[in-house]
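# nightly structure sweep
# worker-07 picked up a monomer target from the shared queue
# config: single-sequence mode, recycle default, output format = structure tokens
# input follows
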Amino acid sequence: MLGIGGILLAGSLRFARGDQRVVVVTMERTPTTPVDQIAAARKLLKDECGSLPGVTVVADAGNPRVQGRFPVRFSIRGASNPEQAALEACLSRHDDVVRGYRVEGDE
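# output follows
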């Protein structure tokens, strides 16, 4: 009985928390890549992929001079499967600057 109660409690807590999925995109960069070039690539990626239906850009939190070292994040909270596929297609179109991506919060 205790086991069933624990499962129900965990499930209800997840349901109450809601959809928290975020796509974390790692950008290609080398030590010699100019900061302006990194910033331009990040902005283009955010503008093109972050404007898709069901996708929002998670604002950068940190020093803009070093932000290029960190991943770009897109919230896909509540996004449908076709909307997620559109984001993946957009990221694929930017394969010259996108090293990879993963989904966080998808338990």
